[in-house]
Amino acid sequence: MSRIQRRALLASSAAFAFTPTIVRAQKKYDPGVSDKEIKLGNTNPYSGPLSAYGVIGKCITGYWNMVNDQGGINGRKITFITYDDGFQPPKTVEMVRKLVEDDQVFSTFQLLGTATNTVVQKYLNQRKVPQLFVATGASKWGNPKDFPWTMGWQPDYVSEATIYAKHVVANHKGAKIGVLYQNDDAGKDYLHGFQKGLGKDNEKQVVAAMSYEATDPTVDSQVIQIKSSGAEVFFNACAPKAAAQAIRKIADLGWKPAHYLANVSASVASTLKPAGLENSKGILTAYYLKDPTDPQWEKAPDFIEWKAFMGKYMPGANLADASYVYAYAVSTTMRHVLTQCGNELTRANLMKQAASMKDLVVPLLLPGVKINTGPTDFYPIQSLRLARFDGETWKLFGDVISGDTA
Length: 406
Hints:
Blueprint: E1 28-29, E2 37-44, H1 54-69, E3 77-84, H2 89-102, E4 107-109, H3 114-126, E5 131-132, H4 157-171, E6 177-182, H5 185-198, E7 206-212, H6 220-228, E8 233-237, H7 240-253, E9 258-261, H8 268-275, H9 277-280, E10 284-287, H10 301-313, H11 322-340, E11 344-345, H12 347-354, E12 383-389, E13 394-402
Helix pairs in contact: 1-11, 2-3, 4-5, 6-7, 7-8
């Protein structure tokens, strides 16, 4: 995979606005589109080991309900079809085939999970059906040469882990390091990125790298082994349930390593609260979205807009769950791309517009983080800021940092 160019993203966040002028071209439609409708397809783990992420699909459903209440996109209502795959790849294959062949969706949107996206990537690319803004940061989603119909959205795991490792080198020189990661492409990306960030001179600091399966009931034994290795730094590259278990076990053992937590599990509601807020104090992560528990955003126009949406379309939802912020921001990106298509609602044009975003700011991105893509750059977001948990909320520190992907 080609190395992408680092981007310096220093501009302040601004309220999101659609481009006001849409070219009035002759109508061109692919399957899933009519004068009145655009069909989008999705799979999500509403059940199973990663069901904590199910709120993302629910929030996306609420978002498109809001868009439809506002008149749709260029006069067309969004029909959002979402199925539960339980984070079981064979089930994902079944559901995606149903979306494409029976439901005749225009595009898939936000299929969640690395393993689950992997098993349908070739099928969707062979059928030339967009696999847009997948809900996983594996680096493989930015490979337009081999998979021109697949694009990620969030910062890729290699770049994120590289940033953590560079912070370790700068602040914990010579310290022994332990890593816990999920045994799939996502976890291996985190491990690879972390080792890359350490560099050859420091990679021997990793004295324990333990994996776990998504279906494992606990990760207690792995945590015990990593502690026994003498590790003074712990990189917790786990999904929410396992991440919370690791945090809790570390506290039970009385172990106090410098603790880095993958962004995908940085939700106060779904990870830190189950683990124990006091147990989570001092953990570091990297952010590109506004944390809903951070009071500094309370008066920000985009945050007020999001809270109003949540109150109307997601009543009773836990506002401390960062997954709702994620779902809103990525859905707004998809809304932008569909809007830019105008009346040329072909799958090829959808991908063209997705690969033509320049300094786009959508609601709830951190100030200084923008979306940029191009024909050979399928990594929309490549910048993050480090944050430390103070026992109640994440506190940002330092500047926006841009990673790169090998």
